[in-house]
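Journal club prep — side note

Before the paper discussion, L.F. wants everyone to see what a predicted structure for a comparable chain looks like in token form. Sequence:
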Amino acid sequence: MEENKKLVYLDSANATYVNREVLQEMMPAFNSYYGNPDNAYSVGRTAKELVHTAKNRIANAIGAEAKEIYFTSGVVESNNWAIIGLARANKNKGNHIITSKIEDKSILLACAELEREGFEVTYIDCDENGIVSLAKLMGAIKQNTILVSINVANNEVGTIQNLNAIARTVKEKDIIFHCDASCALGSMPLDVKAIPIDAMTLASDNIYGPKGVAGLYVRKTVKIDSFLMGEGGKRPDHANVPAIVGFGKAVELATKEIIVTSHKAKIVRDYLFRNIKEKIENVSLNGHQFQRVANNLNITIDCVDSEALVYMLDAEGICASAPGTRLEPSHTLKAMKKTPEQIFSSVRFTVARNVSKADIDYVVEKLVTIVKKLREVSPLRKSTKEAK
């Protein structure tokens, strides 16, 4: 990025900056306590203590035990391991898996891999707001169903699922329940004691923690196969100690400040949406109006190509994201019954903590100008005028 150029970062669902407190806690693990935590010498023992502290912090935040927390290289690995590891470890009980059409690609692709191995997968629909139907889930359960995986909150549109009802329905049938909470951690309370969750994916890089690390909670009574081959238990490899330390601190801070940070994010997000609606015609919300994570705003701006919009916003120092591309449209919006025109006109803004109302004023000012330019050259706009 050019020096002194204004930056307004509105893509925190993809990645966030690292919190200063988090970074400060990580530093000693880089250059003082850099030993392998699996070794017995003192530097290794100290590193092991740091990893254990991080496990405790994460376990305390979600009502788990430290031994139920595993560290991975990222959300993709956590989701892949959860789906494939749980299915393979419990295939003696059945071979049927249920998930939804709006899960992260890492879950959908893992399910596709299991289908090639002979497992049966049912992909259930959601409604126009991105809510997975409990009735459809109940109707899909069979005697040979061994695993259900439903996200807590959707990464694209921010819709929060009816987690408690889904988890309890699944557990009444003695089926393993996994949920991807990577978009929900730090945005809403998560308690695996209060809600019967068997496995849960946790992310670091959108709660102001480091990239390259994530977590998987697995209840100690649940069987899961190893996903990687090597020495070191269920998840073999040398621990990424600095990243794990940062992840643990980020979870501690994010869950301690949920009410305050969510309220602030909601104020800024609603201010953004209100100003866009006032100044730009034909804008609609994607996802549930109220049942959504506080920082997520996914909208359709009619007759505007979202990929072009994102590039033009970037030229003004504004970071946003388009859900998918024309080669690979958003599977979430497609499942929500959005038309191709709506999908290719949709953009997602996810508010970071350091975004102010003044930043939002700047974003709306630039957005109004860019939308006007794009609509003037839009083939869809021209065809609409001709139809009139």
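L.F.'s comment for the group: The mean pLDDT is 93. Keep this in mind when we get to the figures.
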